[in-house]
Amino acid sequence: MKKIITLLSTLLVVFGFSIKSAIADKSGVVKIPTHNWSSQLVGAEVVGELLKMVGEKVEYINMDSQAVYQAMADGDIDLVHEIWEGAFGASYEKAKAGGGIEEILTHDAVTREDWWYPEHVEKLCPGLPDWKALDKCSAKFARADSGGKGVFIGGPVDWLKHDAEKVEALGMNFMVKNAGSADAIWAELDAGVAQGKAVVVFNWSPNFIGAKYPGKFVEFPKHDPKCTSDPSWGINKNALYDCGNPASGYLKLAVNADFKKNHPKGYKLLKKMNFSGPDIDKMANYKDTDGLEVSAAAQKWLDEHKSKWSNWIK
Ligand code: TMO
Questions:
Q1: How many angstroms separate the CA atoms of 276 and 229, rounded?
Q2: List of domains in the chain
Q3: Which atom of ligand 1 is nearest to the CA of 155?
Q4: Are 266 and 30 in contact (CB under 8 A)?
Q5: pLDDT of the residue at 27
Q6: Centroid of ligand 1 to alpha carbon of 101 (angstroms)
């Protein structure tokens, strides 16, 4: 018994020390979040490698892609380099308004995230890309378990949260099925294309998939900021989300408000950083089409864009 108590207290001391030293180690380390889509994962390592080149230490932390904004304001995460307006604009703006975040820049990349179909679907549903044509055609998107409703394959639940509200607000005969991962969306898309079936999925641009399959975004009523804040706006006078996502959305980079003070070298670098649409496309493509691991894909982007980033680290 005595032995066990001695062992336990030794363990406690060792464990206690290791917790303390882990926290101490983290001071001075730039904490970069990783999420669940390819360009972000590859870009996080690109940003991390560049930060190392200017003398920073980095650590990657897997995080929910909505919760990350409050985590950044609280200092649990130091930066977010891919803030997509469609999926994350609301969470980002809310956390920023609460204080603790410094916006660094808007990338050159222009973004869009919304319902999307591969080319062959246009022949199955005359009138596309208009959303009313899609709705008229809903029966073709039905599945055994959808009760006669068309099925829209949405992204993982931490991305866009409002597809079900959109369906409801627009009175569409559709239901949302959330894929568990980006790869699960592409698997649905591959199967739909292979079988020539009606398929409509969540997709975004820039992304690698447009190079694999030509296709189009569904055109919902044009986005307006009031659509998500004022129920009386739009074709449904009693509901929010009766519109599409922004067709020319931003991609921003922001940091914790103390980043400038805590990481002056990294701050100087981030101020100059800027990803274009093709940069984001390629980061996804190296992984999802070429099959490279995240680190190898990041290295490939760095190898092929030295003239671009060498100015950032000067
Ligand atoms: C957040 N995403 C780029 C997957 O739409």
A1: 30
A2: 27-110+249-309 (3.40.190.10), 112-228 (3.40.190.100)
A3: 4
A4: yes
A5: 62
A6: 21
